[in-house]
Specification:
alpha/beta; two-stranded antiparallel ribbon; globular; TIM Barrel; 14 strands
């Protein structure tokens, strides 16, 4: 197992396939993709296969493909297939803005993807356009339905809660989870190097949602070992579940089980950490597997126990398109 100096076990890899996105979300890329990321050389399929093979040999069981927007990679299905052939992989998940899912859902299922997270920050088309800069609300809904038809059972909806923008829709999202087998995840707005002013004006603590759920008879579930960062709530009679991702909560980092690797092959020990550790030189040949494993174990010793958001230090992450959260 991969274990850090605080005895946390790591079973979950978030792998960025590219740092660009076709949406212009207010909290991430309101001005589009920075020019400097457009021509970066992303990990090849073989490099990804070597990376995943080494990490699964050390206890990683769940692989999440993210971005930017991973469906912009023309070889996404081939990448998923290559990962699915690694016997130790138990789950392949995808995080996407959903605009291309109607076309890709069947192929994703056939190539091993068995969980999808889809960003839907509003249930109103006009507000969806205001937040994302794209008039694709109904395309995303078609993608959700296509994912269901394809047999992908684990479907989660990610909604970043923005003060004065979409916080008035919280009950609408909860009702959606009550009547359909979808897991809604409310995500607290997080600061990055690019969104400082926006964060100050739009950040909203999610404590009020926890109170609302308790009042409605929802209960907090026990966390699974390979689970993501959300506290998950359920209620008898509800078709779906509710997740809360709150990076400012006092215990947010206690159960960290995630490693992150950027699209260029850099190990990112914390989403809000400073500096990354290049792995790409050790991904050029299958014979480098032992060296790569030793290097990752050594690097993990540098991981801090917690981020420093409460001290106003949000690390070197410029925007979430570079790593996907």
């Amino acid at each position: 197992m991969l274990i850090d100096s605080y005895q946390r076990r790591f079973s979950y890899l978030r792998l960025s396939l590219l740092p660009v996105c076709n949406f212009r979300c207010l909290y991430c890329l309101p001005n589009g993709n920075p020019k400097e990321v457009l021509h970066k050389k992303h990990l090849t399929r073989d490099e990804i296969r070597r990376l995943v093979a080494a990490l699964t040999g050390m206890g990683i069981k769940k692989i999440r493909l993210t971005g930017g927007e991973p469906t912009l990679r023309p070889d996404l299905l081939e990448i998923a297939h290559a990962i699915s052939e690694i016997s130790e992989v138990e789950k392949i998940a995808l995080t996407t803005n959903g605009y291309k899912l109607a076309e890709l859902a069947g192929g994703l299922k056939l190539n091993g993807v068995n969980a999808i997270n889809i960003s839907v920050d509003s249930l109103k088309p006009e507000r969806f356009f205001e937040i994302t800069g794209q008039n694709l609300y109904f395309d995303v809904l078609k993608g959700i339905e296509a994912s269901r038809r394809a047999g992908i059972e684990a479907i989660k909806i990610n909604a970043v809660v923005l003060n004065g923008v979409n916080d008035c829709e919280i009950e609408d999202f909860i009702h959606w989870a009550e009547r359909e087998s979808l897991n809604i995840r409310f995500i607290e707005l997080m600061p990055t190097a690019d969104n400082g002013d926006f964060f100050k004006s739009r950040h909203l603590s999610l404590v009020f949602i926890e109170t609302l759920l308790e009042e409605r008879g929802w209960s907090l579930e026990k966390r699974e070992e390979s689970a993501g960062p959300a506290d998950v709530w359920s209620r008898p009679g509800s078709m779906g579940k509710i997740g809360l991702i709150r990076p400012y909560s006092s215990n947010f980092c206690n159960t960290c089980n995630r490693l992150r690797v950027t699209s260029e092959g850099d190990l990112q020990l914390c989403l809000f950490g400073k500096g990354n550790i290049p792995l790409r030189p050790l991904l050029q040949d299958d014979a480098q597997k032992d060296e790569l494993e030793h290097f990752v174990r050594s690097a993990l010793g540098q991981k801090n126990f917690s981020h420093f958001l409460h001290e106003g230090d949000y690390g070197s992450t410029r925007n979430f398109a570079t790593m996907g959260g």
